Amino acid sequence: MIPPQEDSTSAGPPASQETAAPPAVSPALPLRETASQPAAVGPTRDPRLEASIEASLEASLELPLEESWGLPFYLFVEPLGVGKVVVDLSPSAGPGAELLRKAGAIEVFSPGKAGLPLPFPSGGADVVLFGLPESAVVDDVQRAALMAEIRRVLRPEALCVVRVVAAALEKAAVEVPLRAALTDLLLEHFGTVDIVEETPFRGVSFFSPGSDELAVSEAVAKLAGKPSHLIAFCSPSGERTWHLSESLLVPTGSADNPGTGEGELAAWRREVERLTTQVAAISGQRDLLRERQMTLQDGSERVSKTVSALRKDVERYLRQISDDSAARELLALERDQLRRKWTAAEAEREELNREIEKLRSSTQALRKEVARLRAARGTVAGPDPQPK
Q1: Under a CB-based contact definition with an 8 Å cutoff, are residues 56 and 142 in contact?
Q2: Cα gap 212→206, rounded to integer Å
Q3: Are 234 and 154 in contact (CB under 8 A)?
Q4: What is the pLDDT of residues 213-223, one digit of tens each?
Q5: Which of 252, 248, 19, 197 is nearest to 122 (CA)?
Q6: Backbone angles phi, psi at 92, to 5 degrees
Q7: What are the residues facing 184 on neighbouring strands?
Q8: DSSP H/E element including 5
Q9: Handedness of CA 339, 342, 347, 350 (dihedral sign)
Q10: Could you tell me the CA-to-CA distances from 335 to 58, 329, 338, 339 in Å, in that order?
Q11: CA-CA distance, 23 to 7, in Å (whole number)?
């Protein structure tokens, strides 16, 4: 699987190309004829290193081979070769060359043997695929000679795909991430470098119904191990001529490796068992949550009924309080009216008392006057007869 991890790094002008004379071209390899590639402006190389590179090229440097890259790598790079002239320097052509041709490559060439110089014309390749040997990772002279040949074959705006064994980089990188170490090595020879990781993983991809897109699960990436290889996309220019898919997963497990298959099958079984246990636990939790939800729903209904009854009682009490308040207001009005009447009656009673006192005083005066008159008449006419 090649997950969509990109490490984008751009440098200044590309490193200068080597000045070794181009080797003779085999008539069976008619690469695209282009103008001579101009030498890029870059830092001046050590003359001793230049002499070592030329000596290596003249001695027809033999490069060690690694195991065949396999079909998944070509599935990964086949979109990059559509309409391009491709030089394939992989350890074994296998089905890769035919696959690239069917995908739309103009032509795919292979040198037929491992070694330098390369039997291709200068500036005639659009895409070069090659692996950086472990010896070239640690040997500056061998790496410079190889990169010089690659730069010679490439067109100025071309693409170079470099595949490096991660274990080789681990030996060369000291306290530096593998991606950073590989980027530093390649930026000495190219203007732009992007890095992705290739992680072995046996998997199955399928097309989504009704579409041409592969449906893959990103969750299976956690079952993969450490990256086995790093793949670098390089260009002599400072501009990227490629686009890496953000959802590309390519299974790289070998179908003819029963040991690896058994191990992966055991890993899948353990994962299925773990997921089954997790599903059972989640189902138990779901059932408990459903029971709790039903209990809470019953309690909520009971509380709702109680609240409804309380609301009715409160409304009734409020109406009663409102009626009592109105009655109290009426009673207060009647009390005020009675108090005013009582006050008026008190005033009238006092007035009557005063009138009675006046009448009593008048009556007393009349009685005295009658008594005086009677006394006066009795003196003149004699005594009055005795009252009965």
Answers
A1: yes
A2: 10
A3: no
A4: 655 555 555 55
A5: 19
A6: -145, 125
A7: none
A8: none
A9: negative
A10: 132, 10, 5, 6
A11: 35
- Indicate the helix (H) or strand (E) that contains 159: strand 154-165
Distance spanning both ends of the chain, measured CA to CA: 153
41-68: burial string, b at 16+ Cβ within 10 Å, e else: ebeeeeeeebebbbebbeeebebeebee
pTM of the model: 0.51
CB atoms within 10 A of CB 227: 20
Q: What is the pLDDT of residues 194-239, one digit of tens each?
A: 988 887 665 555 666 666 665 555 555 555 667 888 899 999 888 8
pLDDT tens track for 114-130: 677 888 889 989 999 98
CATH class of 7-255: alpha beta
- The C-alpha atoms of residue 299 and residue 293 are separated, in whole angstroms, by 10
Distance CA(17)–CA(41), nearest Å, equals: 9
Task: Return the domain boundaries, the chain.
Answer: 7-255, 257-372
Please report which helix (H) or strand (E) contains residue 341, including its range: helix 258-381
| Separation between Cα atoms, residue 156 and residue 144, nearest integer Å | 18
Locate 257 and state its tokens: 């490796």
Residue 17 is classified by DSSP as P
Full DSSP string of 263-277? HHHHHHHHHHHHHHH
Q: Per the structure block, which two tokens stand in for 310?
A: 């309380």
